[in-house]
Amino acid sequence: MSKLFDLTGKVAMVTGANTGLGQAMSIALAEAGAKVSLVGYVEPTETVEIIEAAGGTCQAVMADLSTLDVLPRIIAETNEALGPIDILVNNAGIIRRDDSLDFSEKDWDDVMAVNVRTPFFLSQAVARTMVDDGRRGKIINTASLLSFQGGIRVPSYTASKSGIAGITRLLANEWAAKGINVNAIVPGYFATDNTKDLRADPVRSQEILTRIPAGRWGEPSDLAGAAVFLASSASDYVQGVLLPVDGGWLAR
Predict the structure, then answer these.
(1) Cα–Cα distance, 142 to 2 (Å, whole number)
(2) Catalytic residue (choose from 41, 157, 189, 237)
């Protein structure tokens, strides 16, 4: 059974790997045996230290993922240092909060660029290498509870995560026959930088906790099992799934 989850010899690229959910998934993939390319605009110093201290292999690739210009370079750097990409985790994302009556065009465009446009075109670029080489591949997107719900005061984030859900299903439909699995993890309310404002608001934080059957905010390490499962051969017949890791929020 353990061989189903063994990623030895695989190369994984994780965007937004410096902290939080991306860091946790990167560490989990490395612990399962993958060599990990850590992509983002902030140096993932802590992530590198944790992976290397455990005997894993990784490389930091610095890039501003708000633009598509960097995509050929980050793929080339990963290929040169670690080998062809077998697993892509589109995790990098940003959020902007404001009332919809006041929401700016810039905050809309910034979020949509990082959260939807780049994941699609990075997936496209990586999938082309998989198809050209005749290799199986795994693509894992980071969706959100707002892929299912509307939320409040985050219109571009809600639109972007709804878009990620649709893109996940579409790419699964197109690429399953090519040996590429495309799925998404749906984190619930996790203790990360993106939720610090919510956690700092005692009223809103208590409202959220009351809705979560598990009774707590998620910790980034709670995503480890889901990430390894969707990256491994254990999920070879899993396509287009939005896998909630939410402490039971959506079941409430």
Answers:
(1) 25
(2) 157
